[in-house]
Amino acid sequence: MLRRLYDWTMAQARGRNALWVLAVVAFIESSVFPIPPDVLMIPMILAQPRRAWLIAGVATLASVLGGMLGYGIGYFFYEGIGQPILESLGKADSMAAFNDKFNGVGFWAVLIAGITPFPYKVITIMSGWTAMPLGTFIVTSIVARAFRFFVVAGLLRAFGAPIREFIERYLGLVFTAFMVLLVGGFVLLKYL
């Protein structure tokens, strides 16, 4: 089933309604959909590099709005909707322990999940469930998602098709390493 969703998503990237499909995929990926918007963005930007910033902007806006839906699921409907989604992702068992610490590091959790390959939808639902301040959630989501999507757009616009393999294989690892270094730097500064 996942392969069919992936194939369908890729086929949509070539259609004339690709921006709308990207917006829908970015929106629902932030709360329930398993395919990241990058899968659509990459072929769209390679096909029309001059529209790279528009494509990244649409992905950012839709993803943040979808993140607000995930927040709402966690805040208003955790028992009926949020918990089953998190259980399907294998994240339900660790929720009780995580909830106690989450809001203390919520900014970092949203930032890291918004940039790295960690499922952003898990953090959007958790943010609502733990009642993270909505303003913190929105601002951090904008920063994280814009960073992720505009870096991908910039790399594709600058280097074209040759950078595609790097993005698909290693960009998640690079983002993760960047976040580890960033957070590690702040932790190190705190204890020095």
UniProtKB/TrEMBL annotation:
GO terms for cellular component: plasma membrane. The keyword Isomerase does not apply. Residues 52-155 form the VTT domain. Pfam families: VTT_dom. Keywords: Membrane, Transmembrane, Transmembrane helix. The chain crosses the membrane at residues 20-40, 52-78, 105-123, 135-158, 170-189. This is YqaA family protein.
